[in-house]
Amino acid sequence: MVRFQTALTYVLPLLGAMICFFTLGAMKSRESVAQPTLEVILNRIVSYLKLALVATLAFLTACSTTTAPQANTEPYYIASVKIDKTATEAQVKAQFGGSIISFKPEAGFAILGLSKTEGELTTLDTALNQNAFASPEVSAAGYSAWAGGFSAWAGGFSAWAGGWSAWAGGSSIPQAPIENDSYWKQIQLYRAQAISKNFGQGITVAVIDTGLDLSHSMFQGRLSSSSSWKDYVDGDNNPADVSGGNGYGHGTGAAGIILQVAPKAKIMPIRVLASDGKGDLDNVISAIIWAADHGANIINLSLGSNEYSNALQLATDYAGSKGVYVVASAGNNGTQNGTTYPARMTYWGNSKLFGVGSVQSNALLSTFSAFGDGLFVSAPGEGIVSAYPGSKLAKFTGTSFAAPLLTGALALAGSEAPAGTDYSRFSDYLKDSIYSNNFSEQNMSAKGIQDYAFGFGILDVEALIRTLPGWASPIASTELISNGGFENGTMTGWWTNNSNSKVVSSGAFAGSKAIRMSGNDTGMTYTLSNLTPNTTYTLSIAMRNDTVGAGNSLGIVNSDDTGIWKWSERTYYALSTLTFNTGASTSKQISIWRNGPGYTFVDNVSLKTW
After folding, report:
1. Which of 323, 433, 455, 492 is the most exposed place for a label (fewest CB within 10 A)?
2. Could you confirm whether 422 is annotated as catalytic?
3. Mean pLDDT of successive 10-residue stretches along the chain, which has 610 residues
4. Could you tell me if 27 and 2 are in contact, meaning their C-beta atoms sit under 8 angstroms apart?
5. Is residue 268 a contact partner of residue 206, using CB atoms and an 8 Å limit?
6. CA gap 171, 309 in Å, rounded
7. CB atoms inside a 10 Å sphere around CB 180
8. In whole angstroms, what is the distance from residue 474 CA to residue 72 CA?
């Protein structure tokens, strides 16, 4: 092929000379008919040369084994325009050029994609499109929040043990990964789930990210209808998390965190970031509008851009106008007012947009977390265990994984909101539940900044639920369970089969005291009386074992010794629940038994109904 192309360098000039020769000869033969002008002669020469060139190029193309590179068809710039309700797409394109990204005459705007040439000639306010967005953790230009890079992020893998049947249905409170225990206590998640009735049921959350591992066991039964799924990267409806880049698993991790907070919520997967964690502005805008139009109640955006775009603001405002809340990560550059968009637009008039930062266990902002403009609330974002592709778990660090905690909290609270709750005021409810001068002052001192740049405080999920106007706490029957928290140091009303159960001052889930059980086949029972017939109750007890190999059985037993039981082998505190109906009976018996080495701690026994 090379020799062929080299030969052409000699053939082409000869071909040109032959064309000129035959052209002049043809003209000479016609001299007796007409004498052409110089302009006609030159035009004829050019025409023959063009024909020769086209033929040569066609020949080369047919012989070549190399495919011609495809031009990038993605818009180079994005612009927004105001339109009235009577406008048509054809009119907008005729007036402004470009292609239509989103057309919303009912909302008064259209978003256009422009080529580089169109964008440079237009008078519209434009923003760069391609790779305008990135997940904060893998942005090449930003602070690496992976605490050692991708290997540290992926290094927390463990086999997906157990099964997550409780997440997909049933009335029990699901069991989260043990590694997150301290984080859930920091945001009062266990307490929130203890007073929850619906666990996010009825709430749909759009996760706009790298996609999801759609077959992961954590997501079974927890995804929205496939008709609402979108993949804007590949242009299809299969938003699977794709391997091959440092962003792989990012969306899967974010979605898994949301479901740990609100396990009965539905996830709407939308892919806008490639496996390298980067994505285009037009795809993010389209995804936000799609989610708002297809049933999402909350949108999680664990991504950001360093550049403002009016089109992006229009998209988030549009979602807000439809009652959809948008939660966005603040970014990982660790600087004041370094918040990325759209989080940076939190206080710009859309009360349904929240920027979220990451906080450490000591109530100080994570060193990588951006703060200042746009920061509304902070949540734990360091080493959170969540789902990872391949039915695995991984540890995730960054503001991308603090944001889903707020998203999950909004889903949980939204499902608990009483009928008639003003959903447009969740911003106020959230603010009232987390307001803390101490949080700001601690961080001002740590950063050496005399500026309230730290939002309103740390997420408190229980307080958010309790702040909802009209919310009624579950009916806790203190006369039915004496010393449910054992705080007075006694076990009044409880019966034990030996002396191995007693009140201790250590190992308490909440407060300062708990019951400690030890030994094989050790039991505690309590008789519930004065129950209402044909009524559903939920029993909730916090339990843990201090030794691997020990286990507990929690039961609700009838007078004939029949009943329902739940077995656990947890070595950390978690709420174990049983839901039962009294039928015709007015009494039941709580039964707790343990087997194995070490101790079992029992605390916060409560009974509730609605």
Report:
1. 492
2. no
3. 40 42 39 41 44 41 42 83 96 94 96 95 93 68 38 43 40 63 88 85 96 92 96 96 89 94 95 92 97 98 93 97 96 91 95 96 92 96 89 87 97 91 88 84 87 90 91 75 88 91 85 90 93 89 89 89 84 80 92 94 86
4. no
5. yes
6. 44
7. 20
8. 58
Which of 139, 144, 209, 460 is labelled catalytic? 209
pLDDT value at position 173?
Answer: 52
- The predicted pLDDT at position 508 comes to 82
DSSP string computed for 271-307: E-S-TTSEE-HHHHHHHHHHHHHTT-SEEEE--BBSS
The residue among 370, 306, 310, 285 whose CA lies nearest residue 336 is 370
Strand (E) or helix (H) holding 386: strand 384-388
CA 132 distance to own-chain centroid: 19
Q: Is residue 314 within a helix (H) or strand (E), and if so which, with residue range? A: helix 310-321
Residue 130: CB partners within 8 Å, gap ≥ 6?
72, 74, 76, 280, 281
- The answer for residues whose C-beta is within 8 angstroms of residue 606's C-beta and 6 or more apart is 194, 474, 476, 481, 484, 539, 540, 541
**310-321 and 281-293 are packed helices; what angle lies between their axes, rounded to 10 degrees?**
10
Which helix (H) or strand (E) segment is 5 a member of?
helix 2-29
Kind and range of the H or E element at 52? Answer: helix 38-63
**Residue 20 host element (H or E):** helix 2-29
Clarify whether 209 is annotated catalytic: yes
**Distance, CA of 261 to CA of 173 (rounded, Å):** 10
- What's the distance, CA 503 to chain centroid? 42
Cβ pair 403, 328 in contact under 8 A = yes
Residue 250 a catalytic site member: yes
Residue type for position 256: G
The set of residues, in sequence order, having a beta carbon less than 8 Å from that of 394 and lying 6+ positions away, is 153, 154, 156, 157, 249, 253, 385, 386, 387, 388
What distances in angstroms separate CA 480 from CA 439, 532, 565, 575, one per listed residue? 39, 12, 20, 19
- Per-residue confidence (pLDDT) for residue 35, from 0 to 100: 44
Catalytic residue among 224, 329, 358, 400: 400
CB atoms within 10 A of CB 187: 25
Helix axes 2-29, 38-63, angle to 10 degrees: 150
Per the residue annotation, which of 181, 250, 276, 366 is the catalytic one? 250
Tokens of 263: 């396990």
Could you tell me if 294 and 229 are in contact, meaning their C-beta atoms sit under 8 angstroms apart? no
Please give the single-letter amino acid code of residue 93.
K
Q: What is the DSSP string of 391-441?
A: TEEEEE-SGGGTHHHHHHHHHHHHHHPPTT--GGGHHHHHHHHH--HHHHH
